[in-house]
Amino acid sequence: MTETPPPVAKRVPTERVHHGDTVLDEYAWLAAKDDPDTIAYLDAENAYTEARTAHLAGLRAELFEETRRRTQETDLSVPTRKDGYWYYTRTVEGQQYGVHCRRAVRPGETAPPVSVDGAPLDGEEVLLDGNQLAEGHDFFSLGAFDVSPDGRWLAYSTDFSGDERFTLRIKDLTTGESLPDEVPDTFYGTAWSSDASTLFYVTVDEAWRPNRVWRHTVGTPSTEDVVVHQEDDERFWVGVELTRSERFVVIDIHSKITSEVWVIPAANPTGAPAVVAPRRQGIEYAVEHHGHRFLILHNDGAEDFALAYTSADAPGEWEPLIPHTPGTRLEAVDAFENHLVVSLRTNGLTGLRVLPVGTDDSWDIDFPEPIYSVGLDANPEYRTSEVRLRYTSLVTPDSVYDYDLVTRELTLRRQKPVRPGPDGRAYDPADYEQHRDWALADDGTRVPISLVCRRDTPRDGSAPAVIYGYGSYEASMDPWFSIARLSLLDRGVIFAVAHIRGGGELGRRWYDEGKLLAKKNTFTDFVACARHLVKAGWTASDRLVARGASAGGLLMGAVANLAPDAFTGIVAQVPFVDALTSILDPSLPLTVTEWEEWGNPLDDPEVYAYMKSYTPYENVATVEYPAILAVTSLNDTRVLYHEPAKWIARLRSLAPAGDYLLKTEMGAGHGGPSGRYDSWREEAFVNAWILDRVGRA
């Protein structure tokens, strides 16, 4: 291991004053992305990280190769039917990105066609090849991919830097040519009119807030496009989509706690939008079109949401359909001609409920495993008696099923292949076991933990472990399968997910108890889970690594300050570790929209003091920290690169005896490298570091 000294960031004191509190930030200069000193510092950190991990190069290569060998590189997704075509995506061995295709439905063909070893289907039409689009670029990402109702046009958008500013284009699928129509700096979300003459799209303001919905007429310059809706309240985002019935263009306007929906008849794209229900502070609702009515999923007097409906012709009063049931969180409703499917969660698990139209009957689809994730997949057809769903668990690879809404028959269409590992043995889920455990938080709350390990893993505290967490935005970390994770499990590492407050695993209350002035519950819950794993004999603190990303990176920084003795290592990816500084600056991307999640420290001294008491960067102390690996991206617009850069610099300054590494992707965004092989290499880098920390390198 190299003895190269770590980089030392220069100190340039910058004063920040709020609510009578003066703070000197010596590393604020790192926010200047165009400053040569900033880039030089990031380059120096990258060089240091590479030198400090050079001894792991062989292990990184080994882990990458294990992932590659276990993955069926030439593969084809289960085709999804829309009108007269089957749509699917292919991957090809050696190529980074997917190839988006379709094939005409043949007479009498009801089941999706099956590929042999991922080969193209006979009669295939390539709609978009990500590898061709990505040529000459280090980064590539698709934003929109939206085929018009008549199947003629493809609206797609591309990002070549990772900053999530997309250029929107339209391709003529009959000729294969792209139209001159080109719109720069668009956001996610598009919607076609019924006759495919008009395309709606979204743009952002200077703070990267999606604030405008535009109408574009196919074949005209973008300079002639018309703003359909502009949202001036800086708390709110806008989005646009076409209903599954293809009857309405929906403009969804929402803040963290309030919603408003407007609709435009898709057959009259130049018509004025009409509001379904005016916004009321604290009331969230979502709209799904179904025949003569709009279905309304809402929280008006319903903490865990209820389902109602109103007239699609003249929206008014909401008539109850599914009443509120405390503890059963209704998350979405999907409407088909003769059935409704409600996505929900209860007792910490996801589920699907079917409601036949015109009856009082309903039922939940059953699944055998004690821990799993299930949800609807792509289902573009409105008139159908069959729906596509996706299922997985910590030991079950991603599985695609078709469910017959009439016969209730569940048909497995495909389970993601896991090819033999380095020892030549086929993957057998029976070699692994998954568990649901519970930790007791400081306030007596029981916090669920999901775990997976090899069946022969000892329970005497000698096994190393990774504990993953997030705990924000009501996002649930439901169990998921990972091929790369097998390389850890097969080396005796336990993998655990802490379902902490701030997420949505146990309903809206679980989220509310981990946000705003209750945010510290997220951090203490995670520490309680970590200490429970030790107490229960799963692992020991000197072989336990914590991992989280984005808001989960904030979690990592907070628990490093709160309980540095609980972990031997911490992986913080794109970490939101300078949260107070960012949330104090309304000119930064997303800040104002975040105030309903974290509070507004700019105007509220109580929020300011509370955030300052937990923000990782503000609370670095002269203590013995676990080893820390921070991974970020220069072009990230969600969590700016300088947050982890400043954090690592301050850690080195105040606790110089620690082992801190900063790795910056110089040409990527929030999600890291875009190509699948690059992503596997990034995961191999992180997992090699983890294995080194726990003595399994």
From TrEMBL:
<keyword id="KW-0645">Protease</keyword>
<feature type="domain" description="Peptidase S9A N-terminal">
    <location>
        <begin position="7"/>
        <end position="415"/>
    </location>
</feature>
<feature type="domain" description="Peptidase S9 prolyl oligopeptidase catalytic">
    <location>
        <begin position="480"/>
        <end position="694"/>
    </location>
</feature>
<dbReference type="InterPro" id="IPR023302">
    <property type="entry name" value="Pept_S9A_N"/>
</dbReference>
<dbReference type="InterPro" id="IPR001375">
    <property type="entry name" value="Peptidase_S9_cat"/>
</dbReference>
<dbReference type="InterPro" id="IPR051543">
    <property type="entry name" value="Serine_Peptidase_S9A"/>
</dbReference>
<comment type="similarity">
    <text>Belongs to the peptidase S9A family.</text>
</comment>
<keyword id="KW-0378">Hydrolase</keyword>
<dbReference type="Pfam" id="PF00326">
    <property type="entry name" value="Peptidase_S9"/>
</dbReference>
<dbReference type="Pfam" id="PF02897">
    <property type="entry name" value="Peptidase_S9_N"/>
</dbReference>
<dbReference type="InterPro" id="IPR029058">
    <property type="entry name" value="AB_hydrolase_fold"/>
</dbReference>
<dbReference type="InterPro" id="IPR002470">
    <property type="entry name" value="Peptidase_S9A"/>
</dbReference>
<protein>
    <submittedName>
        <fullName>S9 family peptidase</fullName>
    </submittedName>
</protein>
<keyword id="KW-0720">Serine protease</keyword>
